Amino acid sequence: MSIRVHVLVRGAVQGVGFRAAAEHAARDAGVAGFVRNRTDGTLEAALEGERADVDRVLELLRTGPDGAHVTGVEVEQVPLRDERSFAVR
């Protein structure tokens, strides 16, 4: 069953290769959506795909790549958008 989640990641998450790591994880898992830095210093992502595949990407978002320090992650299930690709914005 496909799901879509909206994710906000807090902490030292910008300038450490987080978006590239998220993109790599999403593409490896076959997950669509996007990732972007927000002006408030958080990282925002939308992930859409099979639940197990989305969960694999969420694992990365909860820890981040080397150099990141994640202090909080908010995940909210939202309606599907039938996206087919993943983008860094």
From TrEMBL:
Q: Where is the Acylphosphatase-like domain?
A: 4-89
Q: Which residues form the active site?
A: R19, N37
The answer to whether UniProt assigns keyword Ion transport to this entry is: no
The family note in this entry says:
Belongs to the acylphosphatase family.
Name-wise, this protein is acylphosphatase
- The answer, when asked if Hydrolase is one of the entry's keywords, is yes
Catalytic activity line of the entry: an acyl phosphate + H2O = a carboxylate + phosphate + H(+)
Mention any Pfam family matching this sequence. Acylphosphatase
Question: What are the protein's UniProt keywords?
Answer: Hydrolase
Any idea of its EC number? 3.6.1.7
| Alphabetical list of Gene3D superfamilies matching this protein | 3.30.70.100
